[in-house]
């Protein structure tokens, strides 16, 4: 039986448009649930809290979710009982360092033990991590967290001068039309959110004019998406001398490079606002309009920086980003240590917002695949084929030439030939079935000399 994704890709465009907007309607209902206005009003009131008010807010929220986790989440109940700690032992934010860190490996090992017994799994929102450094994590949120996340997203957009209902052009990794489609349209209008979603799999000389002209006709007030993808659009706009002026561009999911920021600002005569977050919902950092510092949205998570041996670092000292969810009671992550490196600044921002500032984040390096017909596809748009395959421990994509791609995988228990077939088919759906895609099983995938893990390595020069 065909999956819904496969059925969508094979359907005529008119049917796709109906299906796309049905799905958009479902998302709109989830993101703008009955509590959206209340939550939005709440975070509007907390936005200008003083440092002392922020600390008190976070402590009260921490105590509630710690007690909830101890009482209803099997992993924490067992873990804390073993080491003899109780939520009531936490008398201040500083006492949080007495609670053990958790990692992605803990969640992989005990996936069901992290879900609260007070929730039915079937009622929760299900998501995944990207899976670029290993098997994707299965994650669950309650509806409140989804709505809360959406409200914070609109906080960021408001800092960029965008309000609910403004037109937004979107360039993300979702399959908007079949990647093998040869003629326009390469976009879908989301009537529920007033967004025009463009395919990130049709960025080539052959298709770019139709994309740019449709963007110009749509006349968005903002653009949202991966920085690597939007910078390609920006370069083409400059080359084609097509002027599209927007107020703001919002980037996420990849590190925003200085050269990308410059070309985007030049092409669209706008400001660029970057966002740093993750699927686990344990950090949410957004740039302000005055200094473009990354402000940690304290209502969603309590954040710390720790050393490799788990010691809490002082402001200004770099270490691993750690986050504790303050909203997700369905699958609370308590002191979740990420693999991202950063520091919390010693300084406060001159914009007047007293939220902590997260300094630049060192994450995985990004690259771009170039297909035989000249399309350029960002690595973030290529993570989707890996998400359903939970038997892959680690993976790496290497493009050695215009025709050849090798996918290296470290396989776990249960990995089979059908997993290879599904991965190759889904990957070719995105890069083209005329590409040679080979899956090679390896024992390990080494990091670079500076300790970074490159998930995508392309040896092909970009055509622009």
From TrEMBL:
Spans traversing the lipid bilayer: none
Gene3D superfamilies: N-terminal domain of ligase-like (3.40.50.12780)
One annotated GO molecular function: ligase activity
InterPro entries: ANL_N_sf, CapK_Type1_Caps_Biosynth
Keywords tagged on the record: Ligase
UniProt protein name: Phenylacetate-CoA ligase
């Amino acid at each position: 039986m065909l999956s819904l994704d496969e059925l969508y890709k094979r359907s005529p465009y008119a049917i796709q448009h109906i299906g796309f907007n049905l799905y958009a309607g479902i998302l709109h209902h989830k993101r703008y649930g009955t509590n959206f206005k209340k939550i939005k009003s709440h975070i509007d009131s907390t936005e200008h809290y003083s440092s002392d008010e922020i600390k008190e807010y976070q402590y009260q929220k921490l105590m509630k979710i710690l007690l909830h986790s101890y009482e209803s989440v099997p992993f924490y109940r067992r873990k804390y009982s073993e080491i003899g700690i109780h939520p009531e032992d936490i008398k201040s934010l500083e006492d949080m360092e007495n609670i053990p860190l958790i990692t992605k490996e803990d969640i992989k090992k005990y996936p069901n033990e992290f879900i609260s017994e007070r929730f039915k799994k079937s009622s929760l929102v299900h998501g995944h991590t990207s899976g670029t450094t290993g098997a994707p994590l299965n994650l669950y949120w309650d509806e409140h967290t989804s709505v809360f996340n959406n409200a914070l997203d609109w906080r960021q957009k408001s800092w960029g001068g965008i309000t609910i209902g403004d037109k937004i052009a979107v360039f993300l990794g979702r399959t908007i039309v079949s990647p093998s489609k040869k003629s326009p349209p390469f976009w879908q209008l989301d009537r529920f959110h007033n967004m025009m979603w463009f395919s990130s799999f049709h960025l080539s000389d052959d298709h770019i004019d139709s994309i740019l002209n449709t963007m110009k006709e749509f006349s968005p007030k903002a653009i949202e998406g991966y920085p690597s993808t939007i910078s390609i659009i920006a370069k083409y706009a400059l080359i084609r001398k097509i002027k599209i002026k927007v107020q703001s561009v919002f980037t996420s999911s990849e590190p925003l490079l200085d050269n990308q920021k410059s070309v985007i600002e030049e092409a669209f005569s706008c400001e660029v606002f970057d966002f740093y977050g993750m699927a686990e919902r344990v950090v949410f950092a957004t740039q302000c309009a005055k200094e473009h510092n990354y402000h940690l949205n304290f209502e969603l998570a309590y954040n710390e920086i720790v050393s490799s041996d788990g010691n809490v670092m002082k402001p200004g000292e770099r270490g691993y980003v750690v986050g504790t969810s303050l909203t997700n009671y369905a699958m609370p992550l308590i002191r979740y240590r990420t693999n991202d490196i950063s520091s919390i600044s010693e300084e406060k921002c001159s914009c007047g917002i007293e939220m902590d500032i997260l300094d630049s984040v060192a994450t995985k390096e990004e690259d771009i695949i170039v297909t035989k017909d000249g399309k350029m596809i960002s690595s973030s748009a290529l993570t989707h084929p890996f998400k359903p395959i939970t038997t892959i421990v680690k993976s790496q994509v290497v493009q050695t030439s215009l025709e050849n791609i090798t996918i290296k995988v470290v396989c776990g228990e249960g990995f089979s030939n059908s997993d290879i077939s599904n991965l190759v088919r889904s990957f070719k759906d995105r890069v083209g079935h005329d590409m040679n895609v080979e899956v090679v099983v390896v024992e390990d995938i080494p990091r670079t000399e500076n300790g970074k893990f490159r998930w995508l390595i392309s040896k092909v020069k970009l055509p622009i």
